[in-house]
Amino acid sequence: MKVNWKDHIVSTPDVIRGKPRIKGTRIPVSLILGYFAAGYTVKMIIDEFPDLTEAHIAACLDYARELADFEVAKGLWRLC
């Protein structure tokens, strides 16, 4: 599923201390990623958090991918 994470993830200093979260919720992206790391499937995560959709979860993964790409690019720049 192709989604733009910016449509689903926000960060505001007044909600959960500015941690990136699913828009309209207090569910942090890190929590969703932690569930994946623990072996949960998309269905299991949605069962645990019924307000989430597959698009929300795909947005979390896309967000993590973009952060990883940014860190790699930043690291490569330092090598130049």
Key words describing this protein structure:
single chain, 80 residues, mainly alpha, Arc Repressor Mutant, subunit A, two-stranded antiparallel ribbon, 3 helices, 2 strands, 52% helix, globular
Question: What does this protein structure show overall?
Answer:
The protein is mainly α. The protein has one domain (5-79): Winged helix-like DNA-binding domain superfamily/Winged helix DNA-binding domain (Arc Repressor Mutant, subunit A), CATH 1.10.10. It has 3 helices and 2 strands; from the N terminus they run ββααα. It has a two-stranded antiparallel ribbon with strand order 1-2. α1 (29-37) crosses α3 (54-79). The radius of gyration is 14 Å and the shape is globular. The N and C termini lie far apart (36 Å).
How are the SSEs ordered, and which strands pair?
Elements lengths: L8 E2 L10 E2 L6 H9 L4 H7 L5 H26 L1
Antiparallel strand pairs: 1-2
| Class computed from helices, strands and strand pairing | mainly alpha
Domain count: the total is: 1
Name the strands of the widest sheet in spatial order.
Answer: 1-2
Strand content: 5-15%
Spatial separation of the terminal alpha carbons = 36 Å
Largest sheet: 2 strands, antiparallel
CATH fourth-tier homologous superfamily: Winged helix-like DNA-binding domain superfamily/Winged helix DNA-binding domain
Q: Which spans of ≥5 residues are poorly predicted at pLDDT below 50? A: none
CA radius of gyration is 14 Å
Q: At the first level of CATH, what is the class?
A: Mainly Alpha
Extended strand count? 2
Give the overall form: globular
- Would you give the CATH topology? Arc Repressor Mutant, subunit A
Annotated CATH architecture: Orthogonal Bundle
Would you tell me the overall average pLDDT?
90
